[in-house]
Amino acid sequence: MKKPFSVIILLLLFLIACPAFALDVAVDVKGPQDLVSLKDGLAKTITARCLAKNVDAGGAALNVSLFQMGSVISLDAILSSKPPKAFHRDLKSADELSGAIDAMIAEIFTPAPPAQPALPAPVHAAPPAAAAPASQTRTEATFPFAGTSLTFLGDTLFVSSSDTLYRVVDGKANPWWKAPNGAGICRLYAYRDSIVAVASLTSTLFTYQIKDGKTVKKWNRCVVPSKDGLISSHVFTDENLPGGENLWAKPVAVDGKPLVFPEGTDILSTVAADVLPEGGDEAVGFDKFNHVTVLRGKEPLWFSESKFSTLPFFVLTRNVNMSGRDSRKGIKKNQEIRYYFMPRILTKGREIFTIANKEGFSGLFGNVKIYDASRIAAFTPENDGFAEKDLLEIKNNYCVDIALDKGDVLALVVKKSTSSLQRIDLQ
User: Fold this and answer.
1) pLDDT at 116 over 60
2) Model-level pTM greater than 0.85?
């Protein structure tokens, strides 16, 4: 009878210790198979070393990326503290990983020096500058469905559910167009006098051009506006890479005079805009590690410290009906590989806006996406880069899309089977 009792005591102690540690370690490894095979071991050793050093993470998440370029292995880590902390080191071989991990833990969890007490102000000192007022937010409308996207065509707002496109009049959503054949709407765009709707159906992306509530054109691939035209691309899985990797094909022009992004660009989440002082239009999107990045051609000019989560919408990039295993590629042929869509990015002048959804215990449930909170992030020009700030923080719900309206940001927030429109005043 004593043994079960002692087991219960140990379990209780473990449950008490876990929340005190409260560090979520996520490891992403890209490279040859011998490097990819270290992924699980890296997550465990980082967690164990942090516990051994009595690290207090304060509920933050640690995202670690390991990527081999040629003979160099890059180790990057970002701690989602406030402010966030980052670590980078280039390694000549995997033998240097152990020392680099210890250095990362020592550097990234070093507490900031205590603030010095403020000196008394001189008698004739000028009063301190007033703090900038916080963004004002309000609920603009609520909808009896889980929204997936929104856009403006002129002054008219359009919102979509998974299968229906609605025209919003006086805060009410009126059905305007129905997605055919069970396709799920995942992103809306305005293009000239029409709406462009990108939808997924199992392993294919379809795009529909809609006027007056009717389909006038259809593509069996992803087609989106870019500058003064339309471009198209598709997602596929490169099975020759260990574990497979989702890639975007080289975009091509479809209509007008678009800015065509480089090969590999996620065209769903990339926008052409002039956000840097000189050089003309840049591509603002996400890199392969889910950081916001600014590129001119293929050259990355800046990337954010924050790492952003995917949305719950996806498309399958492999034939899930195949059977057997190809040991050379290390992939089960009946393995379901999903490409989850990244959030939309918007620009206003040189400012950049996007969505940061915080995933909860998604890793415990495989392909189930669970979000604890969400925020609308803004990047404002600062010296040779951008400073990040939060415009809106949302608890227990998540945001699927944003739009600009008369200088404000509209956020489409989902709560279970309903959604609401939140207006953020930027004035």
Assistant:
1) no
2) no
